[in-house]
Amino acid sequence: MAPGHPRSATRMVPKLCWTSGSALPAPRQAPRPAPRPAPRPAPRPSGPAAHDRRVRHHRRRHEVKARGFFNIFKQDSKDDGGGDDPDPSFTWSKDVSVDEVVIMQWKDENDSSGKEYNIVYRNGGPVDAAGVEVLCDKIDWPRRPQEKLDKALRNSYLVAAVTLEEPGCPPEARRLIGTARCTSDGAFNATIWDLIVDPEFQGLGLGKALMELLVRSLLKRDISNITLYADSAVVPFYKRLGFDVDPEGIKGMFFKFGV
Question: Does the annotation mark 121 as catalytic?
Fold first, then answer.
């Protein structure tokens, strides 16, 4: 029997008996079989190959033309078939320049002009706090004072941005659709914060691209002890990128103000 299929219920039919001189008893109703449970949906395929299939499907819907971005990261790729294990195809090399990378080309299917845009990753440049707040609002993150957010961005070690833009457009015409930042001592340790992708562009692998390119930027600077904080719902996403929860029993601790 295939896994996930309900077991067939056995129909029990009782034997009826009748003796001379007695009234014929009313026929007993056979017990109704137990209702069959709804079949379980097939588990969602996991692993790099399944992820690439979903990305290709999404690209076809939005007429996205990839520029070989995923080939940068999938040298000697294999389908590990796992969900939460680190992807063995990742090779965190320091040799890929990541200050500016065209991730893919994108065409709005609702735009009759057929205009194509680039989706570009950059780090090291200024990121507008107001644009970050717009992204936070779209994913229902609580608002923070904009002057403090601007200060956090300016004082971060690296701020990465993913923008939607026409080729050759000026910086003020770029639309911010993803961002992440990290703090660091510049030598040993770095912590990644505030990974955000515009919901309109989720499903294209941009969150994964942001993380991979930001980690490469840190490795180029010889910083390899990289940490982050994550909600439980997104822990599997970070595990697939090679992060681990409480490695060697190390616990993250938070100071409780006012206690």
Answer: no
What CA dihedral angle connects 149, 251, 214 and 50, to 10 degrees?
-120
Provide the whole-model pTM. 0.63
DSSP codes of every residue in 8-69: PPPPP-PPP---TTSPPPPPPPPPPPPPPPPPPPPPPP-SHHHHHHHHHHHHHHHT-EE-SH
Burial of residue 130 (CB within 10 Å: 0-12, 13-18, 19+) is exposed
pLDDT digits (tens, 9 = 90+) for 134-176: 999 999 999 999 999 999 999 999 999 999 999 989 988 999 9
Q: Which residues pair with 163 in a beta bridge?
A: 120, 176
List residues bridging with 193 in a β-sheet: 181
Catalytic residue among 117, 157, 229, 238: 238
Q: Residue 65 phi/psi, 5° resolution? A: -110, 110
Q: Which of 89, 84, 105, 4 is nearest to 52 (CA)?
A: 89
